[in-house]
Design goal:
This protein has eleven helices and five strands. It is mostly helical. The protein starts with a helix and ends with a strand. Pfam families: FCH, HR1_TOCA, SH3_1.
């Protein structure tokens, strides 16, 4: 069934239908264009949202980026940004493959439709013109017939009239004959025109217009097919990005599952662990006694044996009170390499060895020191703290970590310079063997510069190694002090060893409100780590020393770079690991100096 056969007389209907089809195509194009604008606006808003909530600081400078919660949130933002990119891709595909192509196709359809209907209208005009000619010849034939009949009647009446002359009768007969001849010619012309019109009409209705209608039908069907394909492109553009969007959603789910609360707690410890020793007990200050009385057995600070209580040279109130605003820990004096001297006194009070009355000394100290309520805010340091190259302005644990980072960075730079030197040497050898490739002398400045950089980096590595060793010693000292002041550990010590056993004994004296017994004075509570190794245990893994370490403190053990060691105890979060050497001997070494493999 086709339009030329079934709709031969529905020219106006076909004209309205084809126009409606083109209007529908234009409406769909307009819809897709607005849909594209919506997708673009949606993607833009998503990108602005992601940009608003992304961290402003670089990852390496942002401590919050180390938490799994922050990392998961950043990953979710990145997935949302990728999702926005897929929405932009959908908008681009719809704009190019639907809007532009269908707009171009709609223009072609409009031109084709216009051409077909112009052809049909010309055929109609030609048929109408033939019909008018037929009507004119018909009216002329009718008029000539009436004139011929009237002339014949006039000639017959004159012929019967006895009063009419012969000339009038002849004239009337000639006129009647002429009219009859004209009527005959009009008849022949009308018959020919009628035959021609019938032929044109048959061609119009059975051939010409059906062909035009069939062309319009083909055009409309092609337009409908193309519009259906455009409908499919709308869904196809979405289906193309569904796998990637699914990956984005899967990435968000993975980011949600990656949140590790325990690990975040450990990260917080690693970031903000100061390494300071816990403050000791607050001493009793007796204001009921006269300040000018002579020292006696009942004076505060004088033990029962009559000897004044002496404080060790390595202890100070500033070190015991890291939370005090007025007595913040100051960096110890620097060694020739730039590091702090462990034996330096930070900001301690005058030694009681000066021979003055202990009560007078206690009075001076109480006047110079504010009430010792711990203030956690003071741990952050003042705004005017000046950063030093050895990071001595930081707490001991943070100083150790920063020095370790700087040491690793210098080692990487040193390795890079060494590799560059080797490459330049090989290039120089090639130039010497093949002079046409280049001048070996041109590489000398670069080789010299590389050697200079290597020497400089080696000095910096040595400097940072020295600082790191001193920082490790300071951390060990603080931990030993803490253990000395708190003589009731639940398990054998799992932290780094102290610098000396005497500090722990002296701290124990300072932190107790009552004088210790003679047995407590003679036997230190925490002296050496050798006591922890009385019962041999089996290794739990193996490890290799990455760097050389000189175990100068009590409880530590020396090791050389590349030495294989047995792992006896894992790091408990304090940065120290217990190992055993093959030659014998067991002790603690820095965890960062090892490459550990557990059994």
């Amino acid at each position: 069934m086709d339009w030329g056969t079934e709709l031969w007389d529905q020219f106006e209907v076909l004209e309205r239908h084809t126009q409606w089809g083109l209007d529908l195509l234009d409406r769909y194009v307009k819809f897709v264009k607005e849909r594209t604008e919506v997708e673009q606006a949606y993607a833009k808003q998503l990108r602005n949202l992601v940009k608003k909530y992304l961290p402003k600081r670089p990852t390496k400078d942002d401590p919050e980026s180390k938490f799994s919660q922050q990392q998961s949130f950043v990953q979710i933002l990145q997935e949302v940004n990728d999702f926005a990119g897929q929405r932009e891709l959908v908008a681009e595909n719809l704009s190019v493959r639907v809007c532009l192509e269908l707009v171009k196709y709609s223009q072609e359809m409009k031109q084709e439709r216009k051409m077909h209907f112009q052809e049909g209208r010309r055929a109609q005009q030609q048929l109408e013109s033939g019909f008018k000619q037929l009507e004119n010849s018909k009216r002329k034939f009718e008029r000539d017939c009436r004139e011929a009949e009237k002339a014949a009647q006039t000639a017959e009446r004159l012929d019967q009239d006895i009063n009419a002359t012969k000339a009038d009768v002849e004239k009337a007969k000639q006129q009647a004959h002429l009219r009859s001849h004209m009527a005959e010619e009009s008849k022949n012309e009308y018959a020919a025109q009628l035959q021609r019109f019938n032929r044109d009409q048959a061609h119009f209705y059975f051939s010409q217009m059906p062909q035009i209608f069939d062309k319009l039908q083909d055009m409309d069907e092609r337009r409908a097919t193309r519009l259906g394909a455009g409908y499919g492109l709308l869904s196809e553009a979405e289906l193309q990005v569904v796998p990637i969007i699914a990956k984005c959603l899967e990435g968000m789910k993975v980011a949600a599952d990656a949140v590790d609360a325990k690990n975040d707690s450990q990260v917080l410890i690693e970031l903000h662990k100061s390494g300071f020793a816990r403050p000791g007990d607050v001493e009793f200050e007796d204001f009921s006694q006269p300040m000018n009385r002579a020292p006696s057995d009942s004076s505060l600070g004088t033990p029962s044996d009559g000897r004044p209580e002496l404080r060790g040279p390595g202890r100070s109130r500033a070190k015991r009170w890291p939370f005090s605003k007025k007595n913040k820990p100051r960096p110890p004096p620097l060694s020739p390499l730039g590091g702090p001297l462990p034996s330096a006194l930070p900001n301690g009070p005058p030694s009681p060895r000066s021979g003055r009355d202990p009560l007078a000394i206690l009075s001076e100290i109480s006047k110079s020191v504010k009430p010792r309520l711990a203030s956690f805010r003071s741990l952050r340091g003042g705004r005017g703290t000046v950063a030093s190259e050895d990071f001595s302005h930081l707490p001991p644990e943070q100083q150790r970590k920063r020095l370790q980072q700087q040491l690793e960075e210098r080692n990487r730079e040193l390795q890079k310079e060494v590799d560059q030197r080797e490459a330049l040497k090989k290039m120089k050898d090639v130039y010497e063997k093949t002079p046409q490739m280049g001048d070996p002398a041109s590489l000398e400045p670069r080789i010299t510069e590389t050697l200079s950089n290597i020497e400089r980096l080696k000095l910096e590595v040595q400097k940072y190694e020295a600082w790191l060793a001193e920082a490790e010693s300071r951390v060990l000292s603080n931990r030993g002090d803490s253990l000395g002041r708190h003589p009731r550990p639940p398990d054998p010590p799992a932290s780094a060893p102290p610098d000396s056993s005497s500090n722990g004994s002296q701290d124990n004296k300072e932190s107790s409100e009552e004088p210790p017994s003679e047995e407590g004075q003679d036997t230190p509570i925490y002296t050496e780590f050798d006591e922890d190794f009385e019962e041999p245990t089996s290794p739990i893994g193996q490890c290799v020393a990455i760097y050389h370490f000189e175990g100068s403190s009590e409880g530590t053990i020396s090791m050389t770079e590349g030495e294989d060691l047995s792992l006896m105890e894992e790091d408990k979060g304090d940065g120290w690991t217990r190992v055993r050497r093959k030659q014998g001997g067991e002790g603690y070494v820095p965890t960062s100096y090892l490459r550990v493999t557990l059994n």
